[in-house]
Design goal:
Largest sheet: none
Order of helices and strands: HHHHHHHHHH
Radius of gyration: 22 Å
Structural class: mainly alpha
Distance between the termini: 71 Å
Number of strands: 0
Number of domains: 2
Length: about 210
């Protein structure tokens, strides 16, 4: 059994260094194609062409094309988590957190990976990890913002984070399909709520925060 395990380990493919400029160029190229055309349009030859490399070099750095997709997602997700961590540390306002959640570029990027995750367990697990950590950090940032201003919100920071993410994603997804019914009204309502959060003074009633204009 030990001999068999040793043979398996010794036959494992040796990949190129994670810090390699070539590896970074491949990730850059894959991300560019995914953002512009979607993951279904991405192939090893197209990635290599954008990176200015031979397509065989991809498999020196990645076992499969899905492993390259996973590297693209992890890099983007980690950058997103760093930005959110900075929001927590610097006490950004709810308006800035909403801007992150409603960013069309970020939402479309995530949507491609959600589609890819339907047949890739590793990417599905990474999306779950990233989504959980993002929700936690956003809720922490929102909680700090409310406490700093002495606001007792009628709904929890975690629920505020969820609603921001859900509404932002839905708006972007519908707009990408050419659907914009009631979007102006939704944006107006959110602008009103965010303004009320900015204007409310410590000790004031929060009853009107979520009332319609």
């Amino acid at each position: 059994m030990a001999a068999k395990r040793e043979r398996t380990q010794s036959s494992k493919k040796l990949l190129g260094a994670a810090s390699s400029e070539t590896r970074t160029a491949l990730i850059d190229a894959a991300e560019k194609l995914m953002r512009e055309e979607g993951y279904a349009a991405v192939s090893s030859r197209r990635i290599a062409a954008v990176a200015g490399l031979k397509h065989q070099v991809i498999y020196y750095y990645f076992d499969t094309l899905d492993d390259l997709f996973l590297a693209v997602f992890r890099r983007g997700a980690e950058a997103g988590l760093v930005a959110l961590q900075q929001a927590v540390e610097t006490g950004q306002s709810l308006r800035e957190i909403w801007a992150i959640n409603s960013d069309p570029r970020g939402n479309r990027f995530i949507r491609e990976f959600i589609a890819l995750a339907s047949h890739n367990e590793a990417i599905r697990a990474e999306i779950a990890r990233f989504g959980t950590e993002t929700r936690r950090l956003q809720a922490e940032a929102i909680d700090r913002h409310l406490k700093r201003r002495g606001i007792e919100s009628p709904i929890s920071p975690m629920l505020i984070s969820f609603l921001m993410a859900a509404i932002g994603r839905l708006l972007v997804n519908e707009e990408s399909l050419g659907v914009d019914l009631v979007h102006d009204e939704v944006n107006q309502l959110l602008e009103t709520i965010l303004r009320r959060f900015d204007e409310i003074e410590p000790g004031q009633s929060t009853d009107r925060l979520f009332q319609t204009p």
